[in-house]
Structure formats: structure tokens, C-alpha cells
Amino acid sequence: MKLPTTHTVPGGNSATSLSQRWHVVRAELRTVRFRVLTTVLAFLAAGLLVTGVATLALELHNLNSHVSEELLGQSGRLRNIVEQGAPGGGPYTSLEGLFTVFLQGGAPGGHGSVMATVNGGNTLLPAGEQPSKLNTPRLLETARARHIEGRTVFHDMTLDGRTVRLAITSVSLGDGTDSGLLIAANEIGRQREQVIASLGTFGAASLATLLLAGAVGFTVTGRLFVPVRRLRHATESITFEDLSSRVVVPPGDDDVSQLATDFNRMLDRLETGIADQRQFVDDASHELRTPLTIIGGHLQLLQAGDPQDVNQTKVLLLEELDRMQALVDELLLLARSSRPDFIRMEWIDADSFLEAAMDRIKVLAERRWQIDNRPGGRFRADRNRLTQAVEQLAVNAVQSTRRQDVISLGAAWVGTPGGTAPPGQHGPSGSGIDIWVADTGCGIGAGDQERIFDRFARVGESRRREGSGLGLPIVKAIAEAHNGTLRVTSRLNEGSRFVLSFPGGTPWHGY
Fold first, then answer.
1. Nearest to 260 by CA among 270, 250, 268
2. What is the pLDDT of residues 50-66, one digit of tens each?
3. Are 429 and 508 in contact (CB under 8 A)?
4. What is the mean predicted confidence (pLDDT) over 410-415?
5. Is 171 in a helix, a strand, or coil?
6. How far apart are CA 109 and CA 74, in angstroms?
7. What is d(CA 241, CA 354) in angstroms, rounded to the nearest whole number?
8. How many CB atoms lie within 10 A of CB 255?
């Protein structure tokens, strides 16, 4: 039996591996971690470069100054010898004698050398070796060409392949007979090379510093950006269907920890909002399904040849369409309640508002209507939205009461107990106002008092009444748009009290 031959593409796996590695490297180069580290290292390298260049320039400047001062010291020493006089007493009578005494002090040492020459006479050197060989025709020719009578002249030249700085001093005894030159030299080139070599050492140390800083920075930034990477992975795993992923918050109270905390809170809000949205869509579809089913059923049973059946079906369909239109309007109102232009604030007189609201709501049904309390004063609110909220509370009260029950409307200031209004204003000083609608109807059970503010919720006697279940959510949205609250206190068979509370600041306005 002949086995099939397997062909292997040379380098195939290697090429794939290189491509994957290059993809990983490119992804790493695009990370914030790499950019931050690169920026820090770039600034550090620029700082080290500027420091090195500035240090080199300063060292070379100091070297030039030091060498020049050292060379001038030779002419100063010669001047001191002249002032001291000849060994036997009296002034020097010849330059050779002066230079001999001067050179008996020996060579300057270090990088310095010295030589003296008398015009038309001998060239004198100190005993012992010197760094630079000065007794050369080229140097003597240069010195004689460059010197200036009565002054010290500096001149740089190359001597035996090395840069040497010369201090050429013209010397005379003042009697007009002899003149000569004092030549002091310093190998400044070798010292410059040493300074420049130190820059190389500095560069090597700087490179080592950059590498160490890069390694430490890579490790530190890696730890610091762990929450950021977790955030990225969390955002990649989050979908509309699953918002359960959360980021582990690192210990501490720095910006990264706060970012992780805020991100988790944002996910909590999104998860809650999407859950509410799904529930809202489910409830809205359920509420719309009933009228649509009714309309479809009656249209299927419609007898087009029977005028009476057509008229009855027309009336019923119009009623269902009105219900659907009202439901859609209420849904749009709830959707717009979070917009900043949902309310338009104005100053409202509390007593006039209560009286106007009572005139509007007392025609809803035959009940015992009354105003409990007129607080006086003025407050800021959106008159139309607030009237809409009070009317909706009154509608709920009508649905929960009978003819002999009482429905009351009232308001009171809340805030500093026993306070008084500022001069020229009315009513007690306060920090907000409560507006309530109360009734003596069937009441709401304790277990239902929180659920009644949910959309499409119907509890108690109101289940058998008409309504979309969006009334109280609309009132709550209006209150929250005013930075206020809506709360209820109720007992079964005793009645309910709904309170709109608008806190924050004083409600007063001077007249």
C-alpha cells in the first residue's frame, strides 16, 4: 500500500507566526500605554541631550578661561621677578640674566610649557622635560610674527599633531637695548578631548538611564493601565443583550480607580435604563394590542350592507382610535420629560393657582370639592405642566371616590419652622412648597403604593376604571423636571393624599 505524499510549504508556519507577532506589535504601538511611555522618554531624552550640550559648552568655556589665566600667570611671575631685582641687588641688566632666573623655577608642569628667546640671541628653556617641544623654527617664526610690543597675545596652533595655545609676551628692560619674547604654551587640545570624552561617558550614562526608565516605566504603566485594559475588554464584551459585565475597581482613590467606578455606575444606569425600556416597550405593545385587536375583530365582522352595523362599528372604532391617540400622546409626553425645554419656569401666585386649578377640576365629577389651605406667596414653576399634574391627580381621585366623598386641594410652605417673610413679601419664609390632592375614597394598599408610579400600573378600584396607567408616571415626571418629588400616603377605605413637593431655595419674589 502506497501512502500519500504530504507536501509542506517551507516557512508557511513561520510567516503566519511573524504576521501574528507583527499584528500584536502594531496593536501595542497604538495603545495609550505606549504613547505615554514614548512621550515621557522623549522628553527625558531631550532633557538629557540639552543638559549634556549645555554642560559641554560650559566646560569648554571654563577650560578656555582656565588655560588663559594659567598662561597669563607666567608673564605675571616674570613681572614679579623683575620687581624683586637681580640676585646681587639692583635691576637686571640683560634679558638673558632675567630669563635665566625665571627659568630656574622649572617648567610649569601639567599641560604647560614655557620658553624665552632674545632677539638676535639665544633661546632659553627650563631644565627637565616639557609636554610641548617649543624650540622649533616654525613656533619661533609664528611667535615673532604674532607678538605685539608691550602686550600678551594668545594664539592657537597645531604642534606635533596637537592643538596648543600660546601666550606670547613681548619683554624688554626699558633701556632700548635688548628685547625678547616669553612664550608660554598649554596643550589645550588634549584637555578638550578629555572634556569631549566625558560627554561620551555622560551619553552612555544617559542611555542607560533611558533604558532603565523605559523598563521601569513600562512596568509601572502596565500596572497603572490594567483597569484601562479591563475597561477596553469590558466594552468589547458588552452587547445590547448583555450588560452584566463589570470592571474590577483597583484599590485607592486615584483617577484610574475613579474611572473604573464611574464606568461601572454608567453600566448600572444603562442596564437599568435598557431594562426599563424593554419593560416599557412590552407594556406599550400590550396596551396597544387590545384596541388593535378590537378594531381588527370589528372590521372582520362588519356587515357592509347593514347601515346600522356600519354606524355602530364606526363609533366603536373611533373610540378605540381616540384611546390609542391618547396613549400615544402620553407616551410622547413621558419621552419628552427628560428634555431641558420640557418646562418653562415663571413666578406663580400660590393662592391664585389653587383657585384656578379648583375651577378646572371640580367639573370632572360630582364630588365634595374643597381647598384645604391657601399659603400665600409666590413660587417658580411651569404653570401649564403643574396644572396638568394637578388635573391628573384629580382624575385619579375621582376614579377612587364616590359621590359623597371629599376631594381637597391645598398647598403649604415647607422649610424653616416659624420663619417670616422678608419685608415687602407675603407668607412665611420657606425653602419649598408642597401642593397636594387628597380624597376620602377607597385608598391604596401598602403593597401597591410604590407600584402605582410604574407605567401602565393599575391597582385597587382603578383597575375597573378607564385609563392607560400612565397618569401617575406623567405626574412624577413633571415633578422631577422641577427637581421635585411626588409621594403618596394612603390607607385602605380611608383615602389617599398625593403631594407634589418642590424643594430648593426660597419661593418668594418681592412685589
1. 250
2. 999 999 999 999 999 99
3. yes
4. 88
5. strand
6. 12
7. 48
8. 10
Give the strand pairing for 406-414 and 368-371: parallel
Instruction: For 487, list phi and psi in degrees, rounded to 5.
Output: -135, 165
φ/ψ of 367, rounded to 5, equals -135, 175
Are 186 and 165 contacting, i.e. CB atoms less than 8 angstroms apart? Answer: yes
Q: Which of residues 279 and 384 earns the better pLDDT score?
A: 384
Q: How is residue 272 written as a grid cell?
A: 437599568
Nearest to 73 by CA among 189, 158, 182, 193: 182
Residue 28 above 70 pLDDT? no
Strand 378-381 versus strand 346-349 pairing type: antiparallel
What the block records as the C-alpha cell of 29 is 504601538
Q: At 434, is the secondary structure helix, strand, or coil? A: strand
Question: How many of the other CB atoms lie within 10 Å of CB of 113?
Answer: 25
What distance in Å separates the CA atoms of residue 192 and residue 195, rounded to the nearest whole number?
Answer: 5
Parallel, antiparallel, or unpaired for β 495-503 and 112-118?
Answer: unpaired
Of 507, 327, 504, the closest CA to residue 421 belongs to 507
Q: In DSSP terms, which residues pair with 495 in a beta bridge?
A: 491
Measure CA 13 to chain center.
44
φ and ψ of 326, to 5 deg: -65, -40
SS3 per residue for 337-366 = CCCCCCCCCEEEEHHHHHHHHHHHHCCCCC
pTM: predicted TM-score of the whole model, two decimal places: 0.49
* Residue 439 · residue 495 · CB < 8 Å: yes
Are the C-beta atoms of 282 and 456 separated by less than 8 Å? Answer: no
Beta bridge partners of 124: 116
Look at the block and give the residue holding cell 391618547.
Answer: 326
Task: Give the type of residue at 198.
Answer: S
The x, y and z cell numbers of residue 216, run together, are 521601569
Q: Is the pLDDT of residue 132 over 50?
A: yes
Q: Which residue has the cell 380624597?
A: 439
- pLDDT tens-digit map of 141-187: 888 888 888 889 999 998 888 899 999 998 888 766 678 899 999 99
List pLDDT tens digits, range 322-349: 777 877 777 777 777 767 778 888 899 9
Long-range contacts of 104-110 (CB under 8 A, 24+ apart): 105/77, 108/70, 108/74, 108/184
Each residue of 252-274: pLDDT tens digit? 777 777 877 888 888 888 777 77
Give per-residue pLDDT as tens, 181-236. 999 999 988 888 888 888 888 889 999 999 999 899 888 887 777 777 777 777 77
What does the block give as the cell for 188? 589645550
